[in-house]
Amino acid sequence: MEPLEESARPPSERTRVRRLPRRAAYDRATIHAILDEALICHLAFAVDGQPYAIPTAFARIDDHVYVHGAAASRMLRAAAGAPICFTVTLVDGLVLARSAFHHSMNYRSVVALGPAEEVVDEAERLAAMRALVERVAPGRWDQIRPPNRQELKATTILRLALSECSAKTRTGPPIDDLEDLALPCWAGVVPLALSRGAPVRDLTR
Questions:
Q1: What is the pTM assigned to this prediction?
Q2: The CATH number of the domain where 105 resides is what?
Q3: Fewest CB atoms less than 10 Å from the CB: which of 2, 143, 168, 171?
Q4: Pairing outcome for strands 117-118 and 155-161
Q5: pLDDT digits over 55-72, tens only?
Q6: How far apart are CA 198 and CA 82, in angstroms?
């Protein structure tokens, strides 16, 4: 039997979608596309048995995601070497049904599990920082001053391999019960999208 292609890697028991499994996707193309569009992730970890979920910026390089912050960050100190849960969600629309029960949202999401590893290799650290800047503004890295040694020392970078992850999406109109279709109320989808506004120049000298 030929080995599975990377794009066809099956989910783990922990990441297999059990609720509405038809909405699940496990291929790398779908997962990478969602991650590459999202700007914010939530990083979940535990400190002394207390769970936390912190929003933060991230970037993807190949089959890893990277987060960074101050070396003194409790999130990064607690997550380094520990099991974490990494999630992103893109909301594409509000699904307004004819019944309260069937209201929903159209969305694309990714969940990844695994140990967070601190990045210590200088070349990889710089590549991660470049990816984080380029994720916000493509082409920006070549226009700005790169981090100096002191700034690099003050920064912790963690990576998570996308070896245990899954995507889940919802698209389309509301799914109403047949007996509700004649109800005299509007039903449909209100699209949502994140868009960039006009840039505002910094006038600080």
A1: 0.91
A2: 2.30.110.10
A3: 2
A4: antiparallel
A5: 999 999 999 999 999 988
A6: 41
